[in-house]
Amino acid sequence: MPAAILSNGVTKFTNCVLVKGNDLVKEDLWISSVTGKILNGQDLLYGQRIAPDNIIDLGGRILSPGLIDVQLNGAYGFDFSVIPEEGTTTYGKGVVSVNKNLVQTGVTSYLPTLTSQKPEVYQKALPYLGPSGAPRNASSGSESLGAHVEGPFISPTKNGIHNTSVLQTPQNGLPDLATCYGPSNLTTSSPIKLLTLAPELPGALSSISSLNELGIMTSIGHSEATYEQAQLALFSGATMITHLFNAMNPLHHRNPGIFGLLGSPPSPSSPPKPYFGLIADGIHLHPTTIKIAWNAHPTGLILVTDAMRLAGMPDGVYEWTNGSRIVKKGALLTLEENGKIAGSSITLIECVNNFMNWTGATVPEALKAVTETPARMLGVESVKGNLKEGADADLVVLDLVGGEEAKNLAVDQVWKFGEMVFEKGGDRA
Ligand SMILES: [Zn+2]
Predict the structure, then answer these.
(1) In which domain, by residue range, is 59 found?
(2) Do residue 153 and residue 296 come from a single domain?
(3) CA gap 10, 345 in Å, rounded
(4) I want to staple 222 with a disulfide (CB 3.0 to 4.6 A). Which of 108, 154, 248, 297 is the partner?
(5) What is the domain-level CATH number for residue 53?
(6) How far apart are CA 83 and CA 67, in angstroms?
(7) What molecular function does GO assign, one term (predicted)?
(8) Which positions ≥6 away from 10 have C-beta within 8 Å?
(9) What values do phi and psi take at 128, rounded to 5?
């Protein structure tokens, strides 16, 4: 009886530690480049007597699910919120280029994010930003799980760097949203996966319910909401807070504000605590603030980059949208006209490293904030963010360097749909 079938597309990783929940487990992992999925190694070996085509000895390194960034405004010189003068064909090529570059940082899926813009920008951009879906092609790079639209239904007093001249109020609920984003972009097969809005605006709560019915998730952000208003948003179906602490009122002992949602629900009939994004770049938040949020609600914490197109570019002054300009000085990005923080230029694995070192989180706990937790928030945990049989074989090989003082994970390899798409020092891209 033949023990092996040739060219079956099966790869076995061995001599590695797998990220499983809050643990690192020494175990092999089997994947298929044919289905792009994680396989049941025991069944293949003993049940079907299939031997892998390819055995990869990881020399004790960590094998993690691919990272997920739910807030990325652009990178590598490309901004999702800017339609080039040449038109949408050039825009589409820009998206393809970001995807191919982004995957090399270990981010195998993400939500391309649009800031507050005029309606025409959403209507032109959104058709390019929806879920990548079929065909599942490893060489396409990082995969969109749908767009994140941040604004323009946000508070003019918590606009951050969003231009107030384009902000709107969802007075009439869903019809106003449809006029803004385009009716074809607000259906049950919408390219939008997540929508950040300010729940205290007139019409916002009914908008949240309507979006829920379409399968579009909502997140509270750029908002002056009180604790009570933020709670109403959860009752209406909001499930997340966008970049917690930034662009919202701080905790006040008599008015805990949006942050108060991380406290215990006041009664069993209350909605669950929301997920929350945090920018762990050392600029947006103090390390202790991050630790407090993590202690308050560890299973809701999602690390996001909020990175914009200047990530990886030299220092200087750059044109931004709506006539504004951004000053880049190292990792610090500020709006020239008022000095406000203007997104970040950090990578997601750097956020993970900061988070580990600032909070004392273990490697699997920190990785959970960029894998399992965002996958759960997005409702895609059966295929993303874990190493269970049947999940997509989107993987990152990580090397843990440094001692107790400063631990750092470095991305050594990235696999997408069962194929290697990046190797540090290698020529794959
Ligand atoms: Zn923002």
Answers:
(1) 10-65+389-423
(2) yes
(3) 37
(4) 154
(5) 2.30.40.10
(6) 27
(7) metal ion binding
(8) 30, 31, 32, 33, 39, 44, 50, 51, 52, 53, 54
(9) -95, -5
In a domain, 3, yes or no: no
Indicate the burial class of 85 (C-beta count within 10 angstroms; 0-12, 13-18, 19 or more).
exposed
Helix 348-359 to helix 287-296 angle (10° resolution) is 80
> CB–CB of 224/216 below 8 Å?
no
Are 237 and 280 contained in the same domain?
yes
**3-state SS assignment for residue 182:** coil
SS3 358: helix
Residue corresponding to tokens 């904030």: 369
Distance, CA 150 to ligand 1 centroid (Å)?
Answer: 7
Question: How many domains, the chain?
Answer: 2
Is residue 281 part of the annotated active site? The answer reads: no
pLDDT tens digits, one per residue of 175-200 = 999 999 999 999 999 999 999 999 99
List the structure tokens of 351. Answer: 């956020």
How do residues 339-387 score in pLDDT, each as one tens digit?
888 878 899 999 999 999 999 999 999 999 999 999 999 999 999 999 9
**Residue 278 contacts residue 290 (beta carbons within 8 Å):** yes
Please tell me whether residues 172 and 55 are part of one structural domain.
no
Given the residues 306, 392, 394, 412, select the one marked as catalytic. 306
Ligand 1 mean position, distance from CA 285 (Å): 13
CATH code, domain with 267: 3.20.20.140
